[in-house]
Amino acid sequence: MARDILVCGLWHETNSFSPLATDLEAFHQYVHVAGDALLDRHAGTNTEIGGFMRAAPRLGMRLVPALYAGAVPSGLVTSAAFARLLGDTVRTAARLGPYDGALVALHGALCAQGEADAEGEYLAQLRSLLGPRAPIVATFDIHANLSPRVFELADVLVGYDTYPHVDMGDRGEEAAAILAELLTRGDRLARAHVKLPLLTVPQVQGTETEPVAGLMAALHAAESDALRTGSIALGFPYSDVAHLGVSVVGYGTEARPVRAAVDALAARIWSLRTALAPRLEAAGAAVSRALAAPAGPVVLVDVADNVGGGSPGDGTVLLDHLLRARADSGAVVMWDPAAARAAVERGVGARFEGAVGGRTDHRHGAPVNVAGTVRFAERLVYRRTGSYMTGLPVDLGQSAVIDVGGLSVLLTERRAMPFDADHLRAAGIVPETRKVLVVKSAIAWKAPFAAMAADHAYVDTPGACASNLRGLQYARGGSRCFPLDASARWAPG
């Protein structure tokens, strides 16, 4: 007999330092699906819910979809949006229940106005609905700031093992398999959670390079020994919350080995804290080096304007340097709804001249004048073909490419996360042929662009995702974490 499993989720990476409030419309623009549409949208995709769906038939599960909503990373979720999304989820789920268990897709770094631990509240509402015995297994992003409440309310937490993120579907399948085991066992696994007073920035969190590659290898070794499953949450340093920082979670059949394994992983991470410092290059020097390089493309990583981390995507520092240097082969993507719509109205072949970018706040650079020919002007809609969320549709709204002497400036109505190259190709830009590519990212750019890149530089630009954390004003605990507090201490137990 099939088990009835609730499927729902709420996904947002909240940057407390971003000036962009995240309202309900932001979720509707990115993803907001309920009922059968939830399963239809995720069928065959490399997503957590896609993974739930692949595993369910062989595990004897009947998935009952409630609501899944997600928004592009940005500032605090408004209290009205969070209340509406949580209320709609609970009401829909209550109407369709009862359930034997739940599979929940979370991010782990969602914060709302007046509710810093929004995911803790989300799980509390689900636990109240399901009762104390129905197991809840939740997936989370490697950038999660896991709170004690989230750890206690979920029977098992399953985090991504990769950054750039490519294993979302696999983690969804793993979560479903663990839920099936819990339903058979009838009781909880032994578990442990360590929170380290440590902040790491996305630039150094890549799981394919050291020191994080070694940490993930150690985690997988522990999973073949003492742990049934475990995860390292490297944290998201741009959420100003009390539960900020790196976490390790582990689950298994015996409490003592689980605790020992989690403590050992945490100790290894703590011993590498000084090795997790970022390295940056000045903007002018990076542009000069890229233009002088014998071959391209050279990827200039605008880390502080990382759209996937909540920055606006309208930072102009690198664009300004490229224009001043008269770069004749490059591509820059800029979120500027007004400029994008104005260029689309002019049409392909027309001349465009006007201020671009720098509209959100003073931290990401001032607007710069762009003058050139419109080469693309239409609604930019495509489906992801890369390794990130493969198969999901993306709508960047009215978009235009302005050619400035060989430098392509792609203006978009909606913010573009450069986790694939599809947005460039859909606008007629062939990235392999460009001398310079500016990506507003941390390291997620590697998945689509690393293989084609002749070289790259992480650039010391200003913004809400700055790799130099000393420029951010923490109010809830970040200042007590290493490296902001060099005297921070931690020991097992």
Chart the SSEs and their pairings.
Elements: E1 3-11, H1 24-30, E2 31-34, H2 36-42, H3 48-59, E3 61-70, H4 79-96, E4 101-106, H5 118-130, E5 136-140, H6 148-153, E6 156-159, H7 168-185, E7 190-195, H8 212-223, E8 229-233, E9 247-252, H9 255-271, H10 283-292, E10 298-302, H11 317-324, E11 330-335, H12 337-346, E12 351-356, E13 368-383, E14 393-404, E15 407-412, H13 422-426, E16 436-439, H14 446-449, E17 455-459
Parallel strand pairs: 1-3, 1-4, 4-5, 5-6, 10-16, 10-17, 11-15, 11-16
Antiparallel strand pairs: 2-3, 7-9, 8-9, 12-13, 13-14, 14-15
What keywords describe this structure?
alpha/beta, eight-stranded mixed beta sheet, 17 strands, 14 helices, 2 domains, Rossmann fold, 493 residues, 23% strand
Give your account of this protein's structure.
By secondary structure, the protein is of the alpha/beta class. The chain has two domains: 3-276, 3-Layer(aba) Sandwich (Rossmann fold), CATH 3.40.50; 283-466, no CATH class. Helix content is 30%, strand content 23%. It has 14 helices and 17 strands. It has helices spanning 24-30, 36-42, 48-59, 79-96, 118-130, 148-153, 168-185, 212-223, 255-271, 283-292, 317-324, 337-346, 422-426, 446-449; strands at residues 3-11, 31-34, 61-70, 101-106, 136-140, 156-159, 190-195, 229-233, 247-252, 298-302, 330-335, 351-356, 368-383, 393-404, 407-412, 436-439, 455-459. An eight-stranded mixed β-sheet has the order 12-13-14-15-11-16-10-17, sandwiched between helices. A six-stranded mixed β-sheet has the order 2-3-1-4-5-6, sandwiched between helices. A hairpin with a 2-residue loop joins strand 14 (393-404) and strand 15. Helix 4 packs parallel to helix 5 and helix 8 runs antiparallel to helix 9 (255-271). It is globular and about 65 Å long. The two termini are 44 Å apart. The model has no long low-confidence stretch (mean pLDDT 96).
